[in-house]
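Duplicate of #3305? Posting structure anyway:
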């Protein structure tokens, strides 16, 4: 039985409060719980793009900005990061300032992925890393992503998935459902890290997410699994 809401306004309210509450320990938790592999996944996400200073990138559910900083380092691209949790944005801005990156090049805004403030056909690329499953309405989010991308613009969604390896799957499920919440409880709110495995269990299958992307108009939709299928990157282009 579900302990948490996985759709609608109740989910959105919970997600905002949860991420604000865990924001100060968020980066540490990611590194500890993934043994640092999260950096590898973000690197693979970055490798799906070929951008330049003249391009505009939108990173949705940006958290503390790690994807944006990776993309900026590789491509020197102008970027905007959006997150619904204001304390996450505060931390992202501090990181940017510590890296001596200009506010003209990298901006961070508090905002809702399902109601973006940006004009149609504005961005050349859009990324969302481990944040898509936290949306209250997947279709609305994809519709907004499609709207703000320029024709030919690329989207990359990095998300947790169900492991594909038969021998690895039970080990991962034990770790993810039992050990990860224990790590979270030592660092912050235990319920926040009970939500994490449950949100993955309730998330869309790979094929269903691809179908939803295609329904919203994205073309050349495909996905690639990493680390025995723990993480998956979904790619699409605006027609």
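Output from current build:
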């Amino acid at each position: 039985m579900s302990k948490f809401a996985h759709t609608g306004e109740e989910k959105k309210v919970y997600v905002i409060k949860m991420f604000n509450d865990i924001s100060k320990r968020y980066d540490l938790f990611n590194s500890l719980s993934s043994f640092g592999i999260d950096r590898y996944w973000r690197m693979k996400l970055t490798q799906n793009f070929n951008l330049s200073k003249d391009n505009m990138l939108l990173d949705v559910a940006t958290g503390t900005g790690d994807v944006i900083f990776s993309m900026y380092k590789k491509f020197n691209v102008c970027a905007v990061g959006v997150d619904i949790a204001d304390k996450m944005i505060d931390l992202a801005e501090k990181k940017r300032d510590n890296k001596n990156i200009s506010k003209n090049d990298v901006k961070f805004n508090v905002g809702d992925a399902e109601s973006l403030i940006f004009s149609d056909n504005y961005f050349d690329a859009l990324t969302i890393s481990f944040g898509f499953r936290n949306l209250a309405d997947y279709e609305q989010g994809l519709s907004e992503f499609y709207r703000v991308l320029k024709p030919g613009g690329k989207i990359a969604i990095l998300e947790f998935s169900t492991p594909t390896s038969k021998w690895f799957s039970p080990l991962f499920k034990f770790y993810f459902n039992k050990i990860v919440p224990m790590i979270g409880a030592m660092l912050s709110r235990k319920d926040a890290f009970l939500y994490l495995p449950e949100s993955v269990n309730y998330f869309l299958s790979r094929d269903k997410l691809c179908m939803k992307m295609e329904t919203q108009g994205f073309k050349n939709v495909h996905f690639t699994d990493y680390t025995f299928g723990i993480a998956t990157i979904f790619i699409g282009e605006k027609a």
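Confirmed duplicate; merging threads. The beta strands are 56-60, 78-83, 106-110, 123-129, 149-160, 218-226, 231-238. The domain at 8-238 is CATH 3.40.50.150 (Rossmann fold).
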